[in-house]
# Entry
Amino acid sequence: MAPIPKPPAEPQDSPDAYVGLDADRAERLARDRGWSTVRSLPPGAIITMEYRAGRLNFEVKDGQVARAWKG
# Structure
């Protein structure tokens, strides 16, 4: 039987720390802190709801992060 895959550990980082930052700066910071995927989305974007370990999502409005969440 094959072993059950273990997802990579997520950075111990609060998504709330990115709210209010310039979107480009926030993305660089998130990658420096270990997030494997950073996704910037416009407000109201339609997205899939699957959870991806190591992914950080940003809702970007007027060039600034308005909301951030894991997955």
Summary: Residues 15-43+52-70 form one domain. The two ends are 29 Å apart (CA to CA).
